[in-house]
Amino acid sequence: MFIVYLIVFLYGISIGSFLNVVIYRVPLGKNVAKGRSYCPVCGNTLSWMDLFPLLSFVILKGKCRYCGTKISWQYPIVEGITGIGFVFIFYLAGINAKFFILLFIWVSIIILLGISYNKKRMK
Ligand SMILES: [Zn+2]
Questions:
Q1: Residues bordering ligand 1, an ion, CB closer than 5 Å
Q2: How confident is the model at residue 69 (pLDDT cuts 50, 70, 90)?
Q3: Full-prediction pTM beyond 0.90?
Q4: Could you tell me the distance, in angstroms and rounded to a whole number, from the CA of residue 101 to the centre of ligand 1?
């Protein structure tokens, strides 16, 4: 059973990784589908986010691999809460229609909160 929860969690953090892209680019009017996350300072693609983003974040101490710039804590936080949310919803609902409805609501809440938080910060 543990392995199922782990898979749900890993699936959750990979969705969370995409949510970060949405949260950052939608307010800036950038294309969400094109390209990956990149370092805002040196422009290098953040390849440490490919697999196990939370773990890589800890290993690299939240810094860009290329230029050493600190990467926003928003990345691992969004990934973490998405993953934990997925596990919690799976625990409550199992895999059925309710699971996907709850996931959709959870993901929408994260996007809305993330975007409104970023807009406040940019002002
Ligand atoms: Zn960089």
A1: 39, 41-42, 64, 66-67, 69
A2: confident
A3: no
A4: 37
